[in-house]
Amino acid sequence: MFNKVRVRFAPSPTGGLHLGGVRTVLYNYLFAKKHGGDFIVRVEDTDQARFVEGAEEYIFKCLEWCGLVPDESVLHGGEYAPYRQSERKATYRQYAEQLVKDGYAYYAFDTPEELDAMRERLKTKGSHSLQYDHSIRMEMNNSLRLLPNETQELLDRGTPYVIRIKVNPNEFVLFTDMIRGDIEFDTNNVDDKVLLKADGMPTYHLAVVVDDYLMKISHAFRGEEWLPSAPVHILLWKYLFGLDAMPQWAHLPLILKPDGNGKLSKRDADRLGFPVYAMDWRDPKSSELTRGFKEIGFLPEAFINLLAVLGWNDGTEQEIFTLDELIEKFSIDKVHKGGAKFDFEKAKWYNQEWIKKLPVTNYELRIKEHLQANGILNIEEEYLLKVIELVKDRCTLLNDFYTQGAFFFQAPPTIDTDSVKAKWDEKKNLFFTELVRGYQFTPVWEHSELEREFKEIASANQLKPGELMLPFRIMLVGGKFGPGVFDIASMIGKEETIRRIEHSLSLLQ
RNA sequence: GCCGCGUUGGUCAAGGGGUUAAGACGCCUCCCUUUCACGGAGGAAUCACGGGUUCGAAUCCCGUACGUGGUACCA
Asked: Could you tell me which CATH class the domain A418-508 is placed in?
């Protein structure tokens, strides 16, 4: 009988939720749901210096938007509460002390200045490593070097200290990563990481192991940037709970910036003009706003979809997946080892596909919001639906519905008369004057009737419809884009059509 | 510097000893369309490099290069 699958996403509430973070959530979620397991969100707020107001609520809002609902979290409750590490502070100390007692960890009293000095010393000595490790620890101010009574005295005096893991040299730490296979670390290269900070908070290293144990996590997914510290975690598992209880690890590939190299960061987004955060994030200190995928006009279905296939595919040609399909088809051994460069063009393509795939009613409200945000009020439901149907093929983002459809609601603010002027003459002027007169008496204001009449007046004036269509379009739309002209005319109605023709005519005088 | 991980077209990628090395995005050409899109047809890679192993390697092994991550009382 296997233990129940339990996975966790462990964000630290320090700012916007990065794309890579959402993908980590997604893979966690897919894996859990595929195996009938639980998806837990645990807030890793052990660094009080980096705490950011509102970041936690923001993360949950992003997850909600994405449709990735946790089974247990600070918000959703659960039997392993609390799910906020700052509220579990006392627990970690207990385990840290236990490690000291068992000889796997020690107290270190070195001040930050002393640590700097130590690194400086090693640097000038030409050392390969500047780490606080087995090679240097007997020269430092810690309970390993000090006599027991000296240590006790420092402790009694309330000297600030940290607890560090004692990594033995000349050993090999081996483990099997679900994505990368067997990985081996030489403990000579592993440093004595701080487990418990001077403020009594655990570092990530201690907290992740303790909580994964206490919360019965079965599989641990995290970014590749954690790989180098994996041996510390494995050692901790060995010393504290035994390797048998340890979850299986999976280190996910990174999402790289599209140009150059390196991890995709918020800076790149600003530079290249696309978002990296799931939703808008406003920094409470600087009040600087960083745009999110949601607000820029992405559908959550598309966002999830494009993230899922950035580093994973099911081996077939399928590219469009619903969440349910992803749950069904996801498998960890199809996840790539190498990082993937993020391609915003392809991201937009996914959104476009989802706009086409989803029923309009799914996102109609969001389009309405975009229109309203741009000053188009008084939107009638039925009319909006027709507009959406007419322009959706040319929209990749939700706010494209404004640029592609605004003229259905209001006269274009500018008319591209330059595109007309070159071939404009009195004959055409006359044609449109007659068209206005004709349209005034059109009995049925409808596509085919309008087109029939248009062509009739054209041939009466010995003009080809072809050379009149573009001017007509520009009069109604303002530029060279949009659906069929007669569709537009029939939509905006007789009065408005005539008004726009006359307005353009006056501009062309 | 040291340690780890990675490397198939511009990008995402299939492919795991014998293939004309899929497909998608983007780009270009053409068709459709009296606009723009949508849609359709086509064009562009010998798999980082060098050695092996093998009758045969993008696929296995070893080096090198390059990239990337870590090297904090941050996660």
From this structure: mainly alpha
